[in-house]
Amino acid sequence: MALTKPQAAFRDALAPKPRCTSCCAAPMGTSCALPEIDEELLRLRFTGKGLRFLSQDEDLVVAEADTGLLIRMIGEFGPGPARVAVSALMVKVHDGEDPGDEALQWLAANRDAWPEDAAETGLGRKLLARIAERGPG
Question: Considering the entire predicted model, what is its pTM?
Fold first, then answer.
């Protein structure tokens, strides 16, 4: 069964759950590759009720998206609805990726948008150190 891009991205919420062909019992598990996280999927995520890329580690999946796109989406939807994008930017820093001056400046100026207690975590401390290295925007 072929899934659409949104069904593959939000498979827990949108993908059809096939039943066993022998006994028609409970839905069988499905497996598929997660599509590239792009603007279309981020818009669906931030506007769709109950849509999540994964039930766990969603920020890791979203961190694969382009940094500029994440900044635009946060700007458009606000840091509340786009909190997973804020977390994804933090993951990029943690993974040693240089998210660029724009992302670091946004994160420095919007610490209230960080996930709760993030500044006290290893990730938050690493991010604060990177921001300090760059100096004021």
Answer: 0.71
